[in-house]
Amino acid sequence: MPSSPPTVSVRLSSSYRLEGLDRLVRDLSPILELDRPARVRIDMSGLVSMSPAAIALLVAAAKRIQNEGLNDAGSEVVPPVSRSAMQYLQRMDVFRHLVGDALPESFQRRPPHGFRPCIPFSTDDECHACARQLRDVVTEACETDSVGASSVHICLDELCENVMHHADTQHGGFAVAQA
């Protein structure tokens, strides 16, 4: 009789800010290091907030195990208890990437202004489109002239291209922005 796959659990709690990404990497290490199928449980019940960079890292880690077939039947994501954290993660499309559209939203979606939800990119065209969307966040939140907007776009395009061409991944990248 075949044995059941192991369960790998990750518990995300409190806040994950840009300057604390090392803690998120440590907390995600069980799934970052996963190399064989397992039941994966991502418990976000104690989560209060996540920066856009933390969201991109979480989604990238979860997408890697999905794309490589490492999350077995019975895998689950436990959403935050905090209503504001839950709504923010939903608005940033975190659950759409982790579990599809399975979680009902308790708010009316409007076009994004001053932020962009999680943007996956895995081709050169998607990479350049992502850089344009990120530039738009900056120009929506700050007064810029065309030279400033162009300069920001060039920098963001370069960052996205670096992910595409130099990151050790076959799955592309993810970007999230909040002004």
What would you call the shape?
A: globular
SS-derived structural category: alpha/beta
Q: Which architecture of the largest domain does the CATH hierarchy give at level 2?
A: 2-Layer Sandwich
The first-level CATH class of the largest domain is given as: Alpha Beta
Q: Helix and strand succession?
A: EHEHEHHEHHE
> How much β-strand is present in the residues?
15-25%
* Number of E strands: 5
Show unreliable segments: none
Strand order of the largest sheet: 1-2-3
The total of helices stands at 6
Terminal-residue CA separation: 54 Å
CA radius of gyration is 17 Å
**What is the CATH superfamily classification of the largest domain?**
STAS domain
Query: What is the typical, i.e. mean, pLDDT?
Result: 93
The profile of the biggest β sheet is: 3 strands, parallel
What CATH calls the topology of the largest domain is: Transcription Regulator spoIIAA
Number of domains: 2
Task: Give an overview in words.
It is a single chain. By secondary structure, the chain is α/β, with parallel strands linked by helices. The protein is globular. Helix 1 runs parallel beside helix 2 (52-67) and helix 5 (124-141) packs antiparallel against helix 6 (146-166). The chain folds into 2 domains: 1-109, STAS domain (Transcription Regulator spoIIAA, 2-Layer Sandwich), CATH 3.30.750; 111-179, no CATH class. The protein has 6 helices and 5 strands, in the order βαβαβααβααβ. The strands form 2 sheets. It has a 3-stranded parallel β-sheet. Strands 4-5 form a two-stranded antiparallel ribbon. The chain has helices spanning 21-32, 52-67, 83-91, 94-99, 124-141, 146-166; strands spanning 7-16, 39-50, 76-78, 115-121, 173-178. Helix 1 (21-32) links the parallel strand 1 (7-16) and strand 2. The N and C termini lie far apart (54 Å). The model has no long low-confidence stretch (mean pLDDT 93).
